[in-house]
Specification:
The chain is of the alpha+beta class and about 250 residues long. Helix content is about 45%, strand content about 15%. The chain has eleven helices and eight strands. It has helices at about 5-15, 25-35, 40-45, 60-70, 75-80, 80-100, 120-125, 180, 195-205, 215, 230-245, and strands at about 20-25, 50-55, 105-110, 130, 140, 145-155, 190, 190-195. The strands form three sheets. Strands 1-2-6-3 form a four-stranded antiparallel beta sheet, with helices on both faces. α1 (about 5-15) runs antiparallel to α6 (about 80-100) and α9 crosses α11 (about 230-245). The chain is globular and about 55 Å long. The N and C termini lie far apart (about 45 Å).
Length: about 250
């Protein structure tokens, strides 16, 4: 088994499915950076040699996803959380590649029952998907904040090299910060994002029902921002999660 060949097959599978972000992270680096309240990779898989992080960046995913829904109308009929369930479907398909190479693995997603088990933002930083921003979102030089992390495999596949963090990119301190003035709820400041105030505002006001003004105002990656119907879709399910969180 050639690890790089297996990784290329996994990347190709996800790329064809609209997930153009597939990064391989060193578990030892993750263990150091994850935080005291997170388990180490070896706690999930004792022989962990890599963490394969999967997501999508920019506007390309939505087009591929819509084509899939048109070709598979029963999927749209039988599912509610379409992107989440599509993600799970594509992860199940990718797992067959790992199975066929006799690899051990565990899969995780930033949604559902195991949503809090991995620090996905830290994984993304380590893999070079972006750097922290005032918005509480990853910020990439080309894709801006238009990045969605969809899942990860912890596996005993040992690659020849791992992806690395982005260096020499820290734009927020020198930016004019239009994200701050754009927020109608004043939840963005020099100190960052007040997520609880933001979520409570969304419960009481429809201003942010279809998009985030601060995210749209960020000067990075504007040509890669999601189309309006995708923004509306994401915000609909964010609101659903917010309601569930504050009702519990």
């Amino acid at each position: 088994m050639d690890a790089d060949i297996v990784l290329e097959k996994v990347k190709s599978h996800f790329l064809n499915s609209g997930f153009n972000l597939t990064l391989t992270i060193d578990p030892l680096q993750y263990n150091k950076a994850a935080g005291a309240n997170k388990k180490n990779a070896e706690d999930f898989l004792p022989e962990a040699k890599s963490i394969i992080l999967v997501g999508f960046a920019g506007k390309e995913f939505w087009s591929i996803f819509q084509n899939y829904l048109q070709s598979n109308p029963e999927f749209k009929t039988n599912n509610i959380d379409l992107i989440d369930n599509y993600t799970i479907l594509k992860f199940n398909e990718a797992s067959r590649i790992l199975d066929s190479n006799n690899l051990e693995y565990e899969s995780f997603h930033p949604f559902g029952e195991n949503a809090i088990e991995l620090n996905f933002l830290k994984l993304a930083e380590l893999g070079g998907a972006g750097v922290p921003s005032l918005l509480g979102l990853l910020l990439h030089p080309a894709y801006g904040t238009w990045i969605s992390l969809r899942g990860a495999f912890i596996t005993n596949l040992e690659p020849n090299q791992y992806d690395r963090p982005i260096h020499s990119f820290d734009p927020c301190p020198t930016c004019d910060k239009p994200c701050i003035s754009a927020c109608p709820a004043h939840t963005i400041s020099e100190s960052g994002w007040d997520w609880e105030a933001c979520m409570k505002f969304r419960l009481d006001d429809i201003t942010c029902a279809k998009s985030c003004a601060s995210r749209l105002a960020c000067p990075y990656g504007q040509e890669q921002q999601y189309p309006a119907d995708q923004l509306h879709y994401h915000h609909k399910f964010v609101l659903k999660s917010v309601k569930e969180y504050f009702q519990d």
